[in-house]
Amino acid sequence: MFTILTGSQFGDEGKGKIVDLLAENYDIVVRFQGGDNAGHTVIVGDKTYKLHLTPSGVLFGARLLIGPGVVLNPKVLMSEIESLEAEGIEANLGIDAKTSIIMPYHIALDELRERGRKEKIGTTKRGIGYAYIDKFSRDEVQMKDLTDPALLEAKLDEIGPAREKAIADLGGDPSVVRDPVLIGEYLEIGRRLASRVADVSYEINVALDAGKKVLAEGAQGAFLDVIHGTQKFVTSSFTTAGSACANLGVGPARVDSVVGIVKAYMTRVGEGPMPTELKDEVGAHLSKVGKEFGTTTGRPRRCGWFDAVLAKKSMYLNGYTEIAITKLDVLGGLDPIKICTGYELDGEVLDYPPESTVEFARCQPLYEEIGGWTEDISGAKSYQALPEAVRNYVERIEALLGVKITIVSVGPGREQTVRRG
Ligand code: GDP
Ligand code: IMO
Ligand code: MG
């Protein structure tokens, strides 16, 4: 069985929590895109794990894979492996030989370019965009190259000068490209990771042939997608469900289900348009109660009402077969609750977002209102036990999306979840 799980908004929908929840039933959990710009939180009991690269199935001992469509910072991965080991958790992790490596010069270029932009993107400064540029220009260092000093040296001889020039042109220090200390650190990590190098496409296809269950864990969210998102305020990878097949080398006919993670309201970290953003006390409530600070950068996330116009587009982009809705508990105490069901753009009413980011930025949200609740729902044990107003909200969103909501999350903990048949 092959399941793909993706974020349906601007990232941070609670993918980590839901992957952890589902992982018990899967043999393999695999990341297929993005890098350590992702921050996926898993909370079990009094322990919190913030995972940037390790797939969120790690606590169940699933086979974990990092696919060749990921851009990998080996230092971040190594420190994640070490922190998990310190907690007594052994990650059974394989990394595809073709995975692109984020080199120190990618991080330098990301920082320098962002600094020089008049209109900033607000990237995580993890070198993501520049690592993908090098993949697509066929100038990347791959995981395999890290395991052999001769391969890495030959690669840097070939691609180093152009990167040194690019850094110097942006006013940076080009010595980062061939810095012997940094290269030594990378090679040492390569040596330690060598036994984990894998062929992810082969491993997944063989597992599926044997009747095993594979869960592909997306990073970011639909509107951070480099094609379908709100360019230029996007990440540099393909974040929608179809990308899992292409990036992992698994045929689309093998997909059994596609799970969308939907936060009960909107958040966005970094720049870019967000029609339902609230800068009032409701926004402050969502930020405070939802603890909306970036898992990777610690920046405050912008908050706003649920946007069903964007959600509809996300249903199309991903073809979800089921939905998990998260953070419903955070809406407690707000009355009424608003749902954006349309936009007004230049005097016209839209029920679907415009393609152009410039036009999207001018869209004004049109809201419908629904009754709120004041009860604390974070200990709910069943869907039926939830207050009627909560169920009304869930079922209204379900009707707007046209896809069954099967999982309702009412708190960050693994057990703070109710299933719907
Ligand atoms: P991801 O990037 O999609 O994995 O999401 P993040 O981990 O970056 O952000 C989601 C945050 O919300 C994390 O701190 C989670 O622990 C937390 N969270 C997830 N589900 C719920 C929920 O239902 N209620 C509350 N209050 N917090 C949640
Ligand atoms: P998870 O997987 C939220 C945002 C950044 C910035 C833009 C581009 O935790 O949901 P990048 O560093 O990727 O070039 O930054 O994308 N961004 C995220 N926002 N959640 C994420 O990941 C994100 N990964 C990148 O804030 O606006
Ligand atoms: Mg996150």
UniProtKB/TrEMBL annotation:
Active site per UniProt: 12, 40
GN (gene name): purA
Enzyme category, top tier: ligase
Pfam family, one: Adenylsucc_synt
GO cellular component: cytoplasm
Residues that coordinate or bind IMP: 12-15, 37-40, 124, 138, 220, 235, 299
Organism: Methanothrix harundinacea
UniProt keyword Cell membrane present: no
Origin superkingdom: Archaea
InterPro entries: Adenylosuccin_syn_GTP-bd, Adenylosuccinate_synth_dom1, Adenylosuccinate_synth_dom2, Adenylosuccinate_synth_dom3, Adenylosuccinate_synthetase, P-loop_NTPase
Binding sites annotated in the UniProt record for substrate: 295-301
Complex formation: Homodimer.
Cell location: Cytoplasm
Family: Belongs to the adenylosuccinate synthetase family.
Protein name: Adenylosuccinate synthetase
Pathway: Purine metabolism; AMP biosynthesis via de novo pathway; AMP from IMP: step 1/2
Necessary cofactors: Mg(2+)
List of residues binding Mg(2+): 12, 39
Record note on cofactor: Binds 1 Mg(2+) ion per subunit.
Keywords: Cytoplasm, GTP-binding, Ligase, Magnesium, Metal-binding, Nucleotide-binding, Purine biosynthesis
